[in-house]
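Hi team,

Filling in the usual template for the complex we talked about on Friday. All components are listed, including any nucleic acid strands or ligand strings, so the model treats them as one assembly.

SUBMITTER: L.P.
PURPOSE: interface mapping
COMPONENTS: two
RESIDUES: 224
SEQUENCES:
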Amino acid sequence: DVKVTQSSRYLVKRTGEKVFLECVQDMDHENMFWYRQDPGLGLRLIYFSYDVKMKEKGDIPEGYSVSREKKERFSLILESASTNQTSMYLCASRRTGPPGANVLTFGAGSRLTVL
Amino acid sequence: RKEVEQDPGPFNVPEGATVAFNCTYSNSASQSFFWYRQDCRKEPKLLMSVYSSGNEDGRFTAQLNRASQYISLLIRDSKLSDSATYLCVVRSNAGKSTFGDGTTLTVKP
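RESULT (copied from the run log):
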């Protein structure tokens, strides 16, 4: 089974703090994604990466940055956390070729609260 | 208009009922289509891919109508364990996967 591991399940941070959310996948998937999920707004794409050192903005990149120095690791960075970034953050990975091409596999999520 | 729109729900049905969810998408160049299931406080997991010819997996049937840009999911003989939120997902030719807001199903005894 593909495993996507997010380093923290629950975090509480203060406004203005720098926050790192780490995601690691163990099946050599090329693509990785960061989403946030909020009630009534569904899953929204923040950033994605097709491969190592590559990154693309998603639908809501403002206030976030990402890093993909190694294929298995995709980090989401909040340079200066704000209360409107309180959310559930979901990392996902995807293989580009068979088997299982195009299917997203998610981590368990990181619930961030910014006070 | 959202790129992917689903029935808002919630759907509350008795065990054994048949229930259908609908989803429309706006990007005619979309390439791949999926239904994911998300249990409360859990991550989304793939339920089934949706193929042009329609496909079935046990009690679940998915249909795709490219001309109308419409996807459906039919669940027959609902079980209590089917209670979850069902997410419609559309992948564009640029590789981006867009999620609908989800439809919540509660199956009652």
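MY TAKE: The mean pLDDT of chain A is 93. DSSP finds no helices and eleven strands in chain A.

Thanks, L.
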